[in-house]
Every structure is written in C-alpha cells, then in structure tokens.
Amino acid sequence: MNARALLYSFSPKPNIPPTDTSAPKRSFGSDSRPKTRFPFRVQIQNREHYWVLRVSRRDSGGGKRRGGKVFADVKSEAYDISESVDKFEKGLSDVPSGKEEELEEEPLAVAEASWLEQFPKRWVIVVLCFSAFLLCNMDRVNMSIAILPMSAEYNWNPGTVGLIQSSFFWGYLLTQIAGGIWADTVGGKQVLAFGVIWWSIATILTPVAAKVGLPFLLVVRAFMGIGEGVAMPAMNNILSKWIPVAERSRSLALVYSGMYLGSVTGLAFSPFLIHQFGWPSVFYSFGSLGTVWFAVWISKAHSSPLEDPELRPAEKKLILSSSVSKEPVKEIPWKLILSKAPVWALIVSHFCHNWGTFILLTWMPTYYNQVLKFNLTESGLFCVLPWLTMAFSANLGGWIADTLVSKGFSVTTVRKIMQTIGFLGPAFFLTQLSHINSPAMAVLCMACSQGTDAFSQSGLYSNHQDIAPRYSGVLLGLSNTAGVLAGVFGTASTGYILQHGSWDDVFKVSVGLYLFGTVVWNLFSTGEKIID
Fold it and tell me: Annotated region Disordered: where (predicted)?
C-alpha cells in the first residue's frame, strides 16, 4: 500500500460500486478528492532498516485523534527519497487543511512575537549591565585562584601576594570619581563600553606581564582596575535614567547579583582551566569574553530613553513620567554635595562595608587552603557557595525593599532596615568562625555572612539614586572611592596581619568596622532627595 492509498483509506468513503483492482491507481485530483474535509498529520521517520509513515486524523464529532502507521522494510541500497517526498507533498497541497489546526498554531505564533515585542527595553538594559558585572567579577576573582600556582612558580611570600592583590585597587581608585563625572556628562553607554574593553585587554595581558616581572604585573593589574573602576558609576548613571523609582531596588539587586554570579563562575571554572591548560588559560579565556559583550552593548544600548529610537511610546512615557534626571549635568555642585551629612554617612558606610567584602573576595580561597586544608580545586568550589548565596539574597532583598516601599513604608526606613541587616549579619557570622572546627560549618558560616551582606544592595548601594539622582554617578564614584580605599588597605593589611597574627585577628577588624558602620548609617542616612 502506498502513502496516497493509505491516506485515502482514512477518509470517509462515498457509496460507490467496487472497481476493478487491476485498473491503474487514480491520483488525488479534483475528481477523486473526498468531499468531506479531514484534518490530518503525516510524519515520516527514517529508521536504520525501514521507513515508518504515521498518519493521524481528528473525527469531526468526537474531536479525538486516530492514527495508524506503516512499517516498510527496505533493502540497504542508495535511493533518493527527496523526489518522492516532494511529489507526495505536492499531491497533498490541494487538500484543504483543517481549521482546527490553523486555530491552534496561529495564536501561538502571535503570542511568541508579542512576547518578544512587549519585553521592556529598560530590562534589556538591566540584563546587559548584569552581564557586564558578571564579566567584571569573573576577571577579578580569577587572580585569587591563579595566585596559588603563580606564587609557587615565582616564589612569592604572603606579603608579595597581598601587594599583587591590592595593586588592582590602585587603578580602581583613580577612576571612581572621574568615571562618575564622565558618565554624568557624556553618558553611561560610552563609559561602560570603554571600561569593559579596557579591563578585558588588561586581563589577557596578565600572564605576559607576570613572566616579564613583578613590576609589570603590578602595572597591568592597576590598569585592569582603571577599567573596572568606571563600571559602577556608569551603570548607576544609566539606571537612574532608565529605571522608575518603584523598580529601583530590584534592578540594582539584579545588576549587582551579576558580580556575585561572576565570582561563582570564576571560582568554579578557574581550577578546572588551571588543571587542564595551566594558569595563563584563565586570563586568556575570561578576558576574551569582553569583546562579545562589547559588540552586543554597542548595538542594543543607549544612555537614556530619549536616545533610543526603537523604544515603544508606552514604555517611554512610563520611564519619563517617573524619571528624576532628565536634564544633562553641566556642573557638579561639589560644595553642596560634601556639606550634606547623609552623603558622609554613605561614604563612611561604604568604607566599612567594603573592608569585609573585599577581604573575603580576595583572601577566601587562601583561607580555605591554609586553614581548612582544602586543595586548589576544593578551595575554588567551596568559594562558590557564599557568592551563590549572595546572588540569591541580593534579589530577595531587592524584592522585599520594593514591596515595603509599595506598601507605604518610607524609603528612609527601608534603606536603614536593609543596610542594618547587611552590617550586623556578616558581623555575627564572622564572630562564629573562631568557635568552629568543622570545615563544613566554616563554609556555611561564610555563606551566611555573605548572604546577609548582600542586603546592602537595597541599602547603601540604592541610596545614591535616592538622595542625589541627577548626580548618582558622581556620588557613587565618591562613596566607592572610600570603598576602594578599604579594599586597598584591607587586602594589603590582611597579608601583614597573617604574617604577624592569625585569621581571627583579620575577622575582628572586619567585625569592628561593621558595627561602626551600623551606628553611622542609622544616625545620619536618609532615603529622601536632598540634592536637586
């Protein structure tokens, strides 16, 4: 039985007298077409030694599908079936399709197109910023893993390791305020694009510099810091223009969670790459990803909604109706900014927060290796858990913060609650490390410490846009300069403390700064706009 005859056997038959079976088979022309329409599906499968033809139809009354299939054994000889299939499909083209099939498929295609068109452009910007920060921390934390085989190869002592780790912050410190001014005056798109390309090139050059000599390595790491230093002010400038106030905490939490997931990715893949291809492969592979992001960013992103010709009018109206930074900045009111107590509360709290955060970022693999006796691979894998916890907690905190604001809580109250958790949580869990002997419990404590730390994304990290939205890039650059100083002094001093003391002493300094920051934040911070 051929395929045409099989299809005809499924169709309703008119009452006609039997014909001579020896007569030639008739094709599906206009005269022989069944007068009752039948929706059907045909599927042809090529198995190893036979072909399978499946045909199913829907009854007009019950709506259930009936089907049948024919197995055709064939000899293993070459045969071009494409011609037969083409003729088969051409013969069926005259048969009308069932309307039920059209009604099922057409809404699905429309819904898919509608979903792509309706996806908010402002969240495309957020996702791209998230990706940039993912790459940012991937390129930053790979040194914390690679430093172990590098120090063994070049005979570096803990003091030299601390110097190398802190050299990143030399460049990072230089571009905080400059990046904020540049972003507020030129636009965040160009500044962030520059930053990603710059630090990606520096990452790729790191193995070359290490082989040339220690001074060259310090310079390249400082150059990498220059690129990453402009990222946060540029991002803050862009989101202050694209994101409505009601979505601020969630959007910032998602972007900053990219940093945490970047740490997860870097710490998870670095040991594998080192074991398989050597430690230089980490810098080559991670650095090359920045060029891919750059191409997408240039084609899709704009510094503000007013510059985007593809933005839907409804979304543009929503953004601009709640935007607080429409006019470009021409002059920075430094005297006014530095005269405000909430600004100084933000600066001091940022310093206290980053001291503990950067120590854990750069020294955690060493802690796992020296204190908990994990090997290189285990150190990288166990470092993943705290950062993964931070990614989850940051988005949870953002959702909680925006929900509290929508329910009538003042922005000031919400910012103080979230930052207090971000300070006291890490302080509590770090104090427990000296009383724990189990490696598993130590890793759990680290994870809880970093998880509560991530609530800061809905606290001090969202406060720049609250108190000075037009100057959010400059203000973030100013406060993050203090945070970078904490990274420079904290990372370098940790190496000195470990030469003359213990890890307990390292954690005690962090806890003391967390407590001091809690007091300053709750006394002087605010969530209200204080600078127009």
Answer: 1-35
Domain 336-531: state its class: mainly alpha
Asked whether 504 and 434 are in contact (CB, 8 A), the reply is yes
Alpha-carbon distance 464 to 481, whole Å? 14
Give the pair of three-digit tokens for residue 237: 């400038």
% of residues, the chain, pLDDT over 70:
75
- Element housing 45 (H / E): strand 40-46
Residue 149 CA to residue 452 CA, distance in Å, equals 32
Q: Is the dihedral of CA 461, 463, 466, 467 positive or negative?
A: negative
Q: Which of 280, 200, 195, 208 is nearest to 238 (CA)?
A: 195
pLDDT at 116: 57
Contact criterion met (CB below 8 Å) for 520 and 349: yes
Q: Helix, strand or coil for residue 144?
A: helix
User: SS3 for 46?
Assistant: strand
Report the SS3 class of residue 283: helix
CATH classification of 118-325 is 1.20.1250.20, yes or no? yes
Residue 7, amino acid: L
Contacts 24+ apart (CB under 8 A), 286-290: 286/135, 286/138, 286/139, 286/142, 286/203, 287/139, 287/200, 287/201, 287/202, 287/203, 287/204, 287/206, 288/200, 288/204, 289/135, 289/138, 289/200, 290/135, 290/139, 290/196, 290/197, 290/199, 290/200, 290/203
Containing 51, the helix (H) or strand (E) segment is strand 50-58
Give the integer Cα–Cα distance in Å for 228 and 483: 14
Q: Tokens representing 452?
A: 């509560």
- CA–CA separation, 453 and 394 (whole Å): 9
Band (pLDDT 50/70/90 cuts) for residue 99 is very low
Mean pLDDT of 392-416: 91
Is residue 394 within 8 A of residue 260, CB to CB? The reply is yes
Domain ranges in the chain are 118-325, 336-531
Q: Which residues, 6 or more positions from 118, have their beta carbon under 8 angstroms from its beta carbon?
A: none
- Reading the block at residue 324, the tokens are 């607080």
CATH topology agreement for domains 118-325 and 336-531: yes
Q: Does residue 366 register a pLDDT over 80? A: no
Res 79: pLDDT:
47
Tens-digit pLDDT profile for residues 434-449: 787 777 788 888 889 9
315-353, pLDDT tens digit by residue? 888 877 765 555 667 788 889 999 999 999 999 999 999
**What is the secondary structure of 168-180 as a DSSP string?**
HHHHHHHHHHHHH
Query: From edge to edge, which strands make up the β-sheet containing 40-46?
Result: 40-46, 50-58, 65-73
Spatial contact of 159 and 497, defined as CB atoms under 8 Å apart: no
Tokens of 490: 């904290």
Distance from C-alpha of 417 to C-alpha of 440, rounded to nearest angstrom: 30
Q: 269: part of which helix (H) or strand (E)?
A: helix 248-277
